[in-house]
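Hi R.,

As promised, here are both runs. First protein below:
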Amino acid sequence: QLQLVESGGGLVQPGGSLRLSCATSGFTLDYYAIGWFRQAPGKEREGVSCISSSGISTNYADSVKGRFTISRDNAKNMVYLQMNSLKPEDTAVYYCAVSWGQGRSCSLTEGEYGNRGRGTQVTVSS
């Protein structure tokens, strides 16, 4: 059964860090790009970061460049999002999604992505 399951969210103070994990199963992770998206209350879902199948190519939204780092461990079927220097505006539900059509590179265009997990809540507040 194909699954993507996010974890690692929580409540953190501004300036703090969190590491999100995306556990995948039911497909061969090695072949596909993975993206992280987020959706805040009352806002549209936006692409945060993505990583190519090999991990060589990555992409970040301007709002998180220099603060977030995406990585993957294909042997463990895991993708990670390290989030540092968190800001209140980072508060959202974060999702990981698989791109069936992207491998060697990735874009943050939501239409390029298919199956996704249920999300994990990240709240940045003092």
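And here is the second one, sequence first, then its structure tokens:
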Amino acid sequence: QVHLVESGGGLVQVGDSLKISCTTSGGIFRTYAMGWFRQAPGKEREFVGAINWAGTDTYYARSVQSRFTISRDNAKNTVYLEMVYLQPGDTAVYYCAADPRGKITMGTPQGRGMDYWGKGTLVTVSS
């Protein structure tokens, strides 16, 4: 069974940077495309970004593409989300997800193909 565990969330100030991680076990991480999603209080889950199995292709939501960067270390079974210039609107629970097909597709922003999900890590941006 595949397990995803996010870590690194916390309370930060406006304008701060934060790097969160998602470590996978029980599967073949190096073959998975990985996605990051977030859900703010009272709002629906939204797509943040994704990376393909090799780390050679990334795709971001427009709202974050100039500030967030996704990377991965297949040797450590870990995907990262580095966030800069954080704003109160970035406050959310951040979830990682894995797509065994390995590629970013048109359905990725909707979570299609993301067969495995973590339980999330909370990022709070205080003004």
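A quick note on the second one: DSSP finds no helices and eleven strands in the chain. Let me know what you think.

Best,
J.
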